[in-house]
Amino acid sequence: MGRRRFRAFLFTMLALDVAALVVVPFVVPPDPTARMMAFAAVLLTIPAIAFWLAYRGGFERLGVWSPESGTEESADDE
Question: How far apart are alpha carbons 21 and 37 in whole angstroms?
Fold first, then answer.
């Protein structure tokens, strides 16, 4: 289960980074200093959001994903 959560953490960080790179230029004025500060603020908060989603039950609360619902069969089902 630890590997699944770590993998979810990495994929979540990657997805949020891509989303930030796409959204921030449309929201922030074209001033280079403002964009740099906005990117820094967003990229510093992404690990915290990804940690909450992957390790603190954020995905389960949103009803998106649960590490217990993997494709691997458990020994109790036999």
Answer: 13
